[in-house]
Amino acid sequence: MCRAAASSTESLGSHGERLAEVKAQLRIGVPVAFSAVLRRSMTVWTVGFVGQLGPKAMAAAALANSTTNTFALSIMVGLSSASVTLVSQAVGAKDSRQAGLWLHRALLVHALTAVPLTLFLLCFAPLLVAVGQDADLAAAAGEYAGMLVPAMWAWAAMWALQPWLQAHGVVRVQTATSAVAALLHPCLLALIVPRGGLVAAAAVDS
Fold it and tell me: Taking each helix axis from N to C terminus, what angle separates 172-205 and 55-68, rounded to the nearest 10 degrees?
């Protein structure tokens, strides 16, 4: 048992090696997690400002955002998860050409996936009516969802690029851009939403 324990300890490496691995993971993981929090915070800001327009506007925005996140965003994240393994293997093998090919294929797959998702968002209002939703609420949610189409295509590109960037250790740029967007987002909402209403909030959210 002592030999097994000693062998297990040796396989984990020295204390310095384990500490270096933890630091390397945190160096990439913390900025990525912070970027995700910043991106999510923008939706919270939007719903908060839309709430000032009334309960029906808030219900429409919440319905459109939750549905978009559940379908479009979840699908893009799932596709991106598959790319993470493939790109990381290529980068680990120092095969830059294969890593680039995986990136190009990911961009193509995400773009093709965005096409039916775009149709889904554009047909969101009649789909809601078909499942028994209030017609006025469905119309407002459908208008909001339609304004999120540009954002969905941006998600497609971002989630295709993210595995490649992370595999190369490029994470600070993503965090910086997310921070700038998160800071500007409530300012734009405060300027536009009181004048433009629900459509303006959807445009800023997009």
Answer: 130
